[in-house]
Fold each of these.
Amino acid sequence: MPDVRIHQLEGFFHVAREGGYTKAAQAFPYPIGQPAVYQQVKGLQEALGVALVRQAGPRRTELTPEGRALFAFVAPFFEGLPKVLERVATGGAAPLVLASDQFLAMEALPPALRHAQKKCPGLVVRVEELATAEIVERVRSGHADAGLVLLLKGPPGLNWKPLGRIGAALLVPRNHPLAALGRKPTPQELAPHGLIAYEGDSPGRVLTERLLQEAGGRLKIAAEVTFAQTMRALVRQGVAPAFVPYLHWTKNAKDGKAKRNDTEETEAALPREPNTVAFDVSERLKGGALSFGVVYRSGTEESRAFAALFDGLRAAWS
């Protein structure tokens, strides 16, 4: 393969487009003299062993057939390069891939993304809604730049930045016997009833089992799901009750520290679904509430797009 350098192709591009060495030197985005441009093109022709440019007048050049073929190939690259560089510099060169829990994508991401796009107008985020284990694996393998996820603790080998806490609500179909109680059911009253729960060893499933085990009960499964929205839809249709997550913590505007909502705010934050009633059971978590935050590989923080999104999340939730 011929030993061709990028600066030689750049010189050839400008000469081909401007039709002369002097005008080409003036068209460069940085200072360069006409003799240097001439040497770039001369070196390129020598490396290829073919004439690309010929003199057509005192200060005018034209392309040979080989030169026209090469120009057709390199022109789109050099013409598009300034815009690409600008987009790279402003964080908008390519979508930032964010693997996210569906609940967080719907509840926690929107205000953070609005904030991030004000700071970085070119920012584009591609959201992949996945289960927790898939989110961590996508980030670990490099197929996602970051993950917005619910975790009990940070995964090994990855950076983990908690942003806030998730509360738990018991969502009950309105025609269910537990709703007829008119109050928050006790663990003993819950025990005989099947519940809709997260699948497998997900953090949400672990938390649900913990809620019951600490009260001496065991989880009785009515259905297993991956996402909170599916869980809420099943409760809405009267299938069974479920422990569902909700954003239970807010930012203290005075000291910047997370605090629990007061009673009125908590009631407003509880899941609202037709034909259901909701009870806040967060106090039963006993310090085992889920953290939500961002998981990412070392070095990702150097990306301007990631920095903008992370700043948006931190401004909204921590």
Amino acid sequence: MAGSVLAEIDFKPVVVIPVYNHEEAIGVTLTDVLSYGYPVLLVDDGSSPECRDLLVQLSDQHPDRVKLIRLEQNSGKGAAVKAGLRQLFAAGYSHAVQVDADGQHDLQDLPLFMATAKRTPEALVIGYPRYDESVPAHRYYARYLTHIWVWINTLSFAIKDTMCGFRVYPLAKTVAMLEQEPCGNRMDYDTEVIVRWAWQGFSVRNLPTRVNYPIDGVSHFNVVKDNILISRMHARLFFGMLLRLPGIIRKKFNG
């Protein structure tokens, strides 16, 4: 009982949205998030002047509910998320919900993600997609290759998806891990942070969520560059898994 009361008292959630040139979609996404009553941190990942000015305008419209930080140069989604998580932890928040700026996530699931995080405050809550017809076929099938590598690199089927950006981080554990474990700064981040989380023996909760592609028609996924980046990440994780193999096995047998 005492533990559940403590978890409830300490649960202070916030939403973090990395933004890079999504000026057509971020207003709608932000409005949807704010309708649920949660504070928001926008992380401008070196956007164009048009998007930058819009983000300033949006934060000025909601000074008590929306904060904005800016990376002077485009550094990648992972770098933006990590900068946001560190700032939010320093500000005293306990959990951060990562939401993509382009409107692909079904924010009707936001209360469920929050409730799951509150009920299991030490777990990383990760969404796994239920797609509609808007998903590009090549991306739908390519995800399964990543699933296979994740299962290999974690020696587990416990993680259903690592590429969905809709998730809830326990901030204390995540920020501490990021200080010790390198994670990619770009499209490789979403998968790598979950694999390294699993290596620590930390728990995850998988939640199904509907995904659309995207409302503003803008995708920053570069088929050549990002697939090379992700392939290198899988190789890096594979050799990292081999080095950690005794410890991973030990943690599994010790529960």
Amino acid sequence: MTTVLLLMLLAVGAYLVAVIEDWVYRGHVQLSAPLIAGIALLGRESVVPRKPDRIFFETGPVLLLISAVLAATVIPLTPGLIVTDLATGALFFNAALVYVLVALLMAGWGPDGAYAMIGGWRFLGQLIAYAMLIVMPITAVAMRAESLLTMQIVASQSDIWNILYQPVGFVLFFVAAMALAFLPPFDLPTAKGELAGGVEAEYTGARLAIFRLGRLALVITLAAATVTFYLGGWHGPWLPTWAWIAIKILAVTSIMLLAGRYVPRIRESDLLGWCWKLGIPLALLNIFLVGVLALVFP
């Protein structure tokens, strides 16, 4: 029952992400836009390239969606709503998201097209840049909670949220989450202005609909993780727990979609340099500071 409820919430969340994204790019809210776009995609013919790697071509979009759903299973939405409260939930979250890279490489390699392949390899470049900036901030969050249980991580923020306790970790995780979801300015894998869609260039019809649904689910999952790790989860005054988690997730999602609109697209080589020369030292500093605070103020 909890799994079904999670899938329903992910579907609703993905729909709202599509509405917000449409508002960001068009400047006005149209609640029916995602529905119309989805029906249009499903109504089109699913064209298969001439010489595809059929297994990779078919599996890529589905694996992207599965990866987002698996990561969401360890995210607590309310004190009693979590699919799997794993003892290593924070690590499982990171492990599930590794398959986003696999999915995009499959989607890039499978069609046997130049633009798609370039998009897939660009995402590999982004992964090398941001991968440590996902793991290391989560490490600091787990240090404060003294647990990898995501429920315990939320409970540890009852007095002060991690965004205030470790702001550097929050910034690093948020930037890495945007790169993982390949949102602007980290949208090199799709890059419509120069790669004609990149990894999704050769997909049409139902396959493209699944690919885009997977990306929307990935955005909402990463927003929920940001709320869980840094914004106190369901904690908040006056309103019920489900209302706070919903408000926070929608707020983080909106910021993720809006932030990149005003920043030029970043080359993967530049992202790699900044992350390894600046991001990783800052992440190590964040772990050190959290360790000192945990010893001084246990």
Amino acid sequence: MGMNLMAEKMRATAEELQAGAEELVSDYGKVKERLFIKICNRERNMEQLSGVPHKDFLEFAVTCHIEMGEYVGGTATITVNDSLLKAFGIGEDQLFEDAIANSPSIRPALIKDIDSLMAMLTGMDAPGMYCPIKAVTVEGLINGAAAILYPGVLERLAEQAGCPLLLIPSSVHEFLCLPEKDGFAKDDMEAMIRDVNEMEVRPDEVLSGHLYRYDPADGKLTAA
């Protein structure tokens, strides 16, 4: 009986999402207000990216999604695929321009000292010691790594640090940033990233095994 009820709820949720999607497709003005971006590792997600508009950025793929929470009372989203894009009647460049512009209001950036973030997650008090590492994610802490692409986020962090930043791709959920002056040797940091990916991160949530660098002098994010 319990399984039957669960199946009914899942069907209802799917039907609500479908109805909501059909309503939105008829009015791109409504879709635009709900668009946000995610990033994933391009090579690891080639199959999932087939038929989905995406922009290549370093070794990542940027994709666009529609927030559908009000239709199911939760946090459901729909990935914009080629069929939806065609129905919207706009070009791919317009889709990404709108999604990037609206992401900060749909999924606001959250920047926390790593100790404070761990305290939020565990319910334990932060140790109270200074730590230069900051987590860059979004409110809700889910699929927040794309927040590094939000206008002004890395610029403000670099300004506060007074130097370029090193970025550690923790997972699809967040990047960890620290001032370059407080970093370690690149090889050591990348070895740490690979170890954490292997032991602590779900395979489908691995973002990268490489270290990145943001230089405020030219505003570019590159491989370190």
